[in-house]
Amino acid sequence: MPIITEYSENNFQDFEWFEGIAVIRFYADWCVPCVQNFPLFEQFAKQFSVSHPEIKFGKVNIDQSPILTLRYHVYGLPSTLIFENGQIMQRIAGVKSLTEMHRILQPYIS
């Protein structure tokens, strides 16, 4: 099973209705910061998947999912949303370091 699941309008209910923490990254293939920073996001997901397997990680390509992009008011890329029990708890705009991502997610985990 992949650590980071690709979401679209066809399967978005999996993270919207997920009971727990879900970290979803909105990106585009043409977005240079998104492409350059994706390995860091992947490393972040792998680290948390080991210590907290209950956290769901995903990504949404804005060009393939314009309805989700509008629904969640994603205007800058990359944008990462942290959901808890289907509710957006935090928006993270732009590129963040591994340390910053850990610090941001820490309050949502037990």
Give an overview of the whole structure.
Helices cover 35% and strands 27% of the residues. The protein has 4 helices and 5 strands. The longest helix is centred in the middle third of the chain and has 20 residues, at 32-51. It is an alpha/beta fold and 110 residues long. The protein is globular.
Record the SSE blueprint.
Elements: E1 4-7, H1 13-16, E2 21-27, H2 32-51, E3 56-61, H3 66-71, E4 79-84, E5 87-93, H4 98-105
Parallel strand pairs: 1-3, 2-3
Antiparallel strand pairs: 2-4, 4-5
Distance between the termini: 24 Å
Rounded to an integer in angstroms, the radius of gyration calculated over CA atoms is 13 Å
Adjacency order of strands in the biggest sheet: 1-3-2-4-5
> What is the strand tally?
5
Structural class: alpha/beta
Shape field: globular
Largest sheet geometry: 5 strands, mixed
Proportion of helical residues = 25-40%
Mean pLDDT: 93
* Beta fraction: 25-35%
Low-confidence stretches: none
User: Treating each run of at least 4 consecutive H or I residues as one helix, how many helices?
Assistant: 4
- N-to-C series of helices and strands: EHEHEHEEH
What tags apply to this protein structure?
about 110 residues; alpha/beta
